[in-house]
Design brief:
It is a single chain. This protein is mainly alpha-helical. 59% of the residues lie in helices and 6% in strands. It contains 16 helices and 4 strands. The strands form 2 sheets. The chain has a two-stranded antiparallel sheet. Strands 2-3 form a two-stranded antiparallel sheet. Helix 2 runs antiparallel to helix 14 and helix 11 packs antiparallel against helix 12. The C terminus is likely disordered.
Length: 373
């Protein structure tokens, strides 16, 4: 196990975001079931923590950019900084939408229409289409931008349904969602087929097999629970099902939990958050906790050594190899090859070798130096 490589694969920002969404999903389900009687602003506390993390990280990053002009000439620094500014602007639009949702739920007044509440989210969806093209051009991640852009029509349908401009069934309201899930399901099947082919192929490297299988399983544990959750939610909104929202949300929790776990094997995020200019995990090891450098640069390799094994039976042939101590063997009796003999002037002690019936595990630490700058 290469600890240094593991640290480099952790996306701390993604872990924080999906963890906050997971906690919020659980709280909003309990609040919808009436199991908790908190204020709606308190229920949104994980979302506020997420946005606070973004705002503080962006402000500190902008301050470092302004006070350290030499950092601007580092490789890829300008693209990283611009991506941070774009992500911050998108998160501010999302925060505006969340504030309006809390105000609308708390007031309960029909004079404050849902179309107005969803307007920041619709604008963010249209902006995300341009941001996706920019991210592809500059080789940047665009998960949230893609999620907003493909659901632009879905947000409009939900808003006009809540304002009772249309009387459609919720099954038809979620048509954009069904289309998105169908496309995602096709990609999931493709990943599963590719993983099955690579597993059966003898010429494929083990690392490639591991990556393909992990990717396929990740898609399976994200897409299928989302489909189940969407079906159960439609039945609940239509009054067909009497299940609690907290029970309906179990498949959703599984999907978000998979996203949380996937943050430990994903590409690094933006290195300009908080002005660190490096990944947060590398910063914690090199600057915050230097004592962890020794452990972060150790690679453990586990090898299995197959020893020779013999079958224990009545017809087993005796072992020909002998361990002789005290005196060398001077003469063997060729008449009986299984019994070693010596001259009369020599005293011998003969011990047969014991066969090993189990695998011996060898763990060898391999130390390498890969200290961050």
């Amino acid at each position: 196990m290469n600890l240094s490589k593991r640290f480099q694969m952790v996306n701390a920002g993604r872990f924080v975001v999906y963890s906050c969404i997971l906690v919020f999903s659980l709280l909003i389900s309990l609040w919808g079931d009436g199991l908790i009687h908190w204020n709606i602003w308190t229920v949104f506390l994980p979302i506020w923590l997420w946005k606070l993390f973004i705002i503080i990280g962006s402000v500190v990053g902008i301050g470092v950019w302004c006070h350290r002009p030499a950092y601007r000439y580092e490789r890829g620094s300008f693209i990283q900084f611009r991506a941070m500014i774009i992500s911050t602007a998108l998160h501010l639009l999302l925060m505006l939408y969340e504030v309006l949702v809390c105000i609308r739920i708390e007031s309960g007044s029909p004079r404050f229409p849902w179309t107005l509440v969803f307007s920041p989210l619709m604008f963010a969806s249209l902006l995300s289409i341009i941001l996706c093209l920019w991210a592809v051009k500059n080789d940047r991640g665009f998960e949230m931008e893609l999620l907003c852009s493909v659901n632009c029509l879905q947000f409009i349908f939900i808003a006009i349904k809540l304002d009772k401009f249309v009387s459609w069934n919720w099954l038809f309201i979620f048509i954009p969602l069904w289309i998105s899930l169908s496309i995602a399901f096709i990609f999931m099947l493709y990943a599963v087929v590719v993983a099955a082919i690579l597993v059966k192929s003898p010429s494929t490297q083990s690392e490639h097999r591991h990556v393909s299988v992990t990717t396929a399983l990740t898609y399976v544990f994200i897409i299928i629970p989302l489909v189940v959750y969407a079906v159960l939610l439609v039945e609940k909104l239509e009054g067909v099902s009497t299940m609690y929202y907290s029970v309906i949300g179990i498949p959703l929790y599984l999907s978000i939990l998979t996203l949380v776990l996937s943050s430990f094997s994903s590409r690094q995020g933006n290195t300009w958050w908080f002005g660190l200019r490096k990944d947060i995990c590398q910063f914690l090891i090199s600057d915050a906790c230097p004592c962890l450098q020794e452990y972060g640069n150790i690679s453990y390799k586990i090898q299995f050594n197959d020893s020779s094994r013999t079958t224990q039976s009545s017809q087993q042939q005796p072992i020909n190899e002998d361990v002789v101590t005290n005196q060398p063997i001077t003469e063997h009796n060729t008449a009986d090859s299984s019994t070693p003999t010596t001259s009369s002037s020599s005293a011998l002690t003969v011990k047969p070798l014991k066969a090993c019936d189990s695998k011996e595990v060898l763990v060898s630490p391999v130390v390498f130096i890969a200290m961050p700058d």
